[in-house]
Write a structure and sequence with these properties.
about 650 residues; alpha/beta; Rossmann fold; seven-stranded mixed sheet; about 15% strand; elongated
Length: about 650
């Protein structure tokens, strides 16, 4: 009931404002043309000739009504005048020109020619009255808010970095907003010509080197980075300075806010750790990727995971004939299904539940849908958990990859792309070792198919009933085998399931401590969209047998990352939040390598994608070893470690 009363009250207020403006405009036009006539005769009313005064008095009532009608047509009574700007100014100008022109034509044709000053002076004074009435409201409201802000408690003292178009829009938005009581105290810009000058009474106090001093001098609580055109390197440099201030940091996500020439404080996002690690935008050949995927049937195993789901998002944008998401965990698969159906209404999407360890299920999927391209992202990835359950790592990662790769060969898949990891290089843990075996599997399949030996590739199965012909390749299928296999190797991705960043954030929110395994541990990091775009690009380059190695940029110390996250939260490491070193976990290395000593890196058309030269080994013997390793894994024997060492010469269990 109170809500209804409130709406009625607001409606009555709106009607009252419109009536006041209508009455004002009718009085204003009369006053405007009278003043024009009065001033023409030096301010002496008695000297105004009857031939001018009488036409004025006769026509002005009708003209006043006409002006209100024209103003109504230009929505000059419906605008929110506290937000009045250049568009409202233009509408008032056009409305005045039209009405003044009609007035001049009508009075001249009906009564005869009036003094020129009457025509032009009346129109100008009318325009001034209309503008003053509307913009004075905005000015008084804005100034009263500034005064009130100074008197009342201020939510935050703001520094805006960037005294350009976006910075000015933020300044206006903050000053006019009813939802924030922030006050912009200073601005920063690297353009020396702006230093010492003011925008809306806010000083531009210097460049990025002055951020720390200005934050202290002006007692800044919040810093808004408002330069959408910054490249990632410059953005990272500025944010790395800002994080030392203990201020709340926000930035624009990108350039798109300036498309319509308008930005708002609502466009800002919190600064994330990715912004501090940022680099220039990764460039890929989108046309080449599109041509590679368009009208193809694409299967993504592990499609509900962090990497798999992003693969599905990017693949969906390239118009595949069908996208098949295959995952053992239904909740994640359901989430990405809903997302893709909403965003890509035209997409033919199949979401299937099953395990890559199940020969019959994976063969059923390949037989029914006949995928052209497979992105194999299904894997157990958590290093410490796999150390406690090593047989599961082998069953799911190694044997699951073998069974999927075998089905791809049997059912004529054109390309099979394995998602690998830098932990596969000189592995010290069972997860990394299992992924190295996966790399060897795809190289084995590719080499033996190219050599016409596809018939020698055995079907691995753990249960007797799986030995049926349904899961084994026929002689005819072996002759037709043409699948090209490749792997893409990269490091850690920010925001993935099991990533250290969400863990650190939870620990900071809980008040600490933040746990780091070792002060010197380093890792390579990339965002999930970056990694996936390069995976898709690498799959275009693949001709079979390659291990593509993504350039992950410079390695990052996990300790530095933890400290930066604490600073981004407005806290001080080792004071507000303690950092505790817990020691390396089983199988964990201080650093990850991107390739093995035996490998060398070749170039690809993309400077961020390299090609590792394959290591030679006996492919037939490898398949026999893998068969034995599978039997040990399915017996859940801890002998699996010894057998992995036999298969991988570079495995050195920590």
């Amino acid at each position: 009931m109170s809500s209804k009363k409130n709406k009625n009250y607001m409606k009555s207020q709106s009607v009252a404002v419109i009536l006041i403006l209508c009455v004002h405009d009718m009085l204003a036009v009369g006053l405007a043309y009278f003043l024009a006539l009065w001033l023409r005769f030096d301010g002496h009313f008695s000297e105004i000739p009857e031939k001018y005064l009488e036409p004025f008095l006769l026509i002005i009532p009708f003209y006043a009504v006409l002006c209100v009608g024209i103003n109504w047509g230009f929505n000059l009574y419906k605008s929110l005048w506290r937000f009045a700007g250049i568009k409202e100014f233009i509408r008032i100008t056009i409305s005045t020109v039209i009405s003044a022109s009609i007035h001049a034509a009508a009075i001249t044709l009906i009564f005869g020619r009036m003094p020129l000053s009457y025509y032009f002076g009346g129109g100008l004074i009318q325009f001034a009255c209309f503008v003053l009435a509307r913009f004075t409201y905005r000015f008084i409201r804005q100034e009263s808010r500034v005064i009130q802000t100074k008197k009342s408690a201020i939510d935050g003292r703001v520094m805006i970095i960037g005294a350009g178009a976006a910075g000015y829009q933020f300044l206006k938005d903050i000053n006019m907003s009813d939802k924030t009581n922030d006050m912009v105290c200073c601005m920063i810009d690297d353009d020396r010509n702006k230093w010492g000058k003011y925008i809306s009474n806010v000083p531009i106090v210097g460049g990025r080197d002055d951020i720390l001093k200005a934050a202290e001098d002006y007692k800044i609580d919040k810093i808004y980075l408002a330069i959408p055109t910054l490249n990632e390197a410059e953005k990272r440099d500025i944010l790395n300075i800002c994080k030392e201030t203990k201020c709340e940091l926000k930035t624009l996500p990108g350039l798109y806010q300036l498309v319509n020439g308008d930005v708002s404080i609502h466009d800002l996002k919190d600064v994330a750790i990715e912004d501090l690690l940022g680099r220039d935008q990764i460039e890929v050949d989108n046309k080449g990727i599109h041509n590679h995927i368009e009208n193809k049937v694409v299967l993504v195993t592990g499609g509900g995971g962090s990497i798999g789901s992003e693969l599905c998002r990017q693949i969906a944008s390239h118009h595949p004939r069908m996208l098949i998401i295959f995952d053992v965990y239904e909740n994640n698969a359901y989430d990405i299904q809903l997302e893709l159906k909403k965003k890509y209404t035209y997409l033919k999407l199949e979401v299937l539940i099953g395990s890559v360890r199940d020969s019959r299920r994976i063969n059923q999927v390949f037989e029914q849908y006949r995928p052209d391209i497979v992105y194999h992202a299904a894997a157990h990835k958590h290093v410490p958990l796999m150390e406690d359950s090593p047989c599961e790592a082998i069953k799911n990662n190694a044997i699951g990859t073998y069974k999927t790769a075998y089905a791809a060969m049997k059912y004529g898949c054109k390309r099979f792309v394995l998602i690998s990891t830098d932990k596969a290089v000189n592995p010290t843990n069972i997860m990394g070792a299992s992924k190295r075996i996966c790399e060897m599997i795809v190289q084995t399949f590719d080499r033996m198919i190219k050599e016409g030996r596809a018939g020698e590739i055995r079907s691995l199965y753990a249960h007797y009933e799986d030995s049926a012909e349904a899961v084994c390749i026929t002689d005819e299928e072996a002759k037709k085998a043409c699948t090209e296999y490749a792997a893409v190797r990269f490091g850690n991705v920010l925001g993935s399931n099991g990533s250290v960043v969400p863990l650190f954030k939870r620990q900071i929110e809980a008040g600490g401590p933040v746990t780091v395994t070792h002060p010197d541990i380093i890792r390579y990091f990339m965002t999930i969209p970056e990694a996936v775009s390069l995976v898709l690009q690498a799959s275009v380059y693949a001709h079979g047998g390659e291990i593509f190695v993504l350039d992950m940029g410079e390695p990052v110390k996990i300790d530095t990352m933890a400290r930066n996250l604490i600073k981004l939260s407005g806290l001080k490491p080792d004071e507000d939040i303690q950092i505790v070193y817990t020691g390396l976990r089983p199988g964990e290395k201080l650093y990850e390598e991107k390739l093995m000593a035996e490998e060398g890196l070749g170039d690809s058309p993309n400077k961020l994608i390299h090609v590792a030269k394959p290591i030679e080994y006996d492919y037939g013997e490898f398949i026999k070893q893998l068969d034995n390793l599978m039997k040990i894994a399915y017996s859940n024997s801890m002998e699996v470690y010894t057998e992995v060492e036999n298969v991988i010469g570079t495995y050195n269990r920590a």
